[in-house]
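Hey,

The postdoc asked me to send both predictions to you directly instead of through the lab channel. I've kept everything plain text so nothing gets mangled by the mail client. Protein one:
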Amino acid sequence: MAVIWITGASSGIGEALAKQYILAGHQLVLSARREAELDRVKANCESMGGKPADILVLALDVLEHDAMPGHVQTVLATFGRIDVLINNAGISQRSKCLDTELSVYKKIMDVDVLGQIALTKAVLPTMVKQQSGHIAVTSSVAGKVGVQWRTGYCAAKHAVMGFFDALRAEVAEYGILVSTITPGFIKTDVSKNAVLGDGASFGMDDDDIKNGMNVDKCASVIVAAMSKGKKEIAVGEGLTMLMLKLKRFTPGLVFNLMAKRA
C-alpha cells in the first residue's frame, strides 16, 4: 500500500486517477482548491471500497507557496510517508497572443509551473530521507507541440517538461523516479475552465476535447505506466499521438501543419 498525493484531484484526470488508485488499494491525499468537490471525490472513492481513514482531503492553492511545507507535514502526520506525488493542477488558455494580457500569461505560469515546482520542492526532502519516491507532472502534447490559441499554456507545459526532465537527473541517486505525463485530447473540463485573453473563463468544450479519450481510460494508462516507472507517459488517441512522433522526426512538417490549422 502506497501513499499517493494527487493535486487537481477535484475533477478530470486527477479524479480519475484517484479512482484507479483506490481500486488498487492505496492510500490517497486529494488536493485542489475546491474542498466540497474533493469531499465528493472522496465519497465516490469510499463507494468503490476505499476506507475513510485511507483518504485525506487536503485543500490547497498551488499559488500559496509558503503553505506547502505545512501541507507536507499534514500528510506525514496522517500517513507517515509520501510515496507518489502527482502534480496535476493546472489551467489552460484559449486566446491569441495579440489578445492576451500579460497578467494572464503570468497566472498560467504561476499555476502550471511555479505551483508544481513549489509543492515538489516541499515534498522532495521527505523522499530523499526515505530514499524512495515517485514524482509526476501532468504536462501535455502542448508541452511538445506549439498549438494556436495556447501560447501561454504551451509555454508552461514546455517549461514543466524541462524542469522535471532535469529533476529526474538530479534525484536518481536517491532512488526517486520522475515521470512526465503528456496527454492529448482527453474528455475533461479543461477547455471549459480555460482562460481567455482578459482572464475570463472560456466556458465551453472544444470539439477536440469533446471527442477526446475517455478520462477513465486515460487514467488507467497513466497508472499502468507509473507502476512500471516509465519516464515519459504519452496518453491519448488519434492525431495528437502522431504529432508527438512527427515533431521528433519531421518538425518542419508539424510547424506547417499547425500554421495551416490556425
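Protein two:
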Amino acid sequence: MVDLACGEGYGCAVLARTAARVVGVDANPEAFDHARAKYTSETVSFERNMVELWRGDVDCAVFLQTIEHIPDPDGMLDHLRDIVGPDGVAYVSTPNVLTLAPKGAERSGNPWHVREYRPEDYRALCERHFPRVDLLGLFHARKLRAHQFAIERLGWDRIHAATRLTQPFYDRFTPAISARDFALRRGDLTRALDLVAVLRPQARRPG
C-alpha cells in the first residue's frame, strides 16, 4: 500500500494496523523527515518524491485531501490507475465545496486549492478514469453530530462565548473525538464534509 502525500506520517501508522506494508510518499522535506523519524517501522517506510512521479509495486493507493491541490487531476487519476494495476484499488478523498465554502459562495477561498468539487463534478472526474466508482460522503456522527446540532439549532457558539466556557469545553471535547464520531454513507452527499471515492480499474464481473 502507498499513502501518497502522507504528510507527517501518522496515517501511515494507522494504515499499517491492517496493511502488510505501507510506503508513505511526500515531497515536503520537513514532513518527510518527521514521518521517517517518528513512524518508520518494520512495516512502514517513507520516500521523498512528488506524488505524480512515484512508482512502486502496490495493489492499493491512498490519496487523501490532496487532489484539490493538483493542477492536472485527470493525469493524477491516470497515474493512480497505473500504480494499483488492474486488480488494485485507490481511495481518493477531497473536501465537498458545498459544505467547505461559505453559504452562497462558489469556492472556499483557500488559495492553495486549484479546484474544489461538488459531488457530481467529483464523480464525473473519477468516472473518466475508473470503470468502478463508489462515491461516499463523510458525515458527523455521535458526539460531532450532537455538537453540530447544538451550534445550528441551539446557538451553542453564543452560549459558550457568553459564559466563558469556550476554552475549558474544547480542551475536553476535542481530545475525546474518535473515528466513531464520523460516518461514511452513500446517497445524498450534499451535506457531506468530504467526498471519498473508492476506485477500481476493472469493471464489475458479471455474476
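Summary for protein two, as requested: The mean pLDDT is 92.

Thanks,
C.
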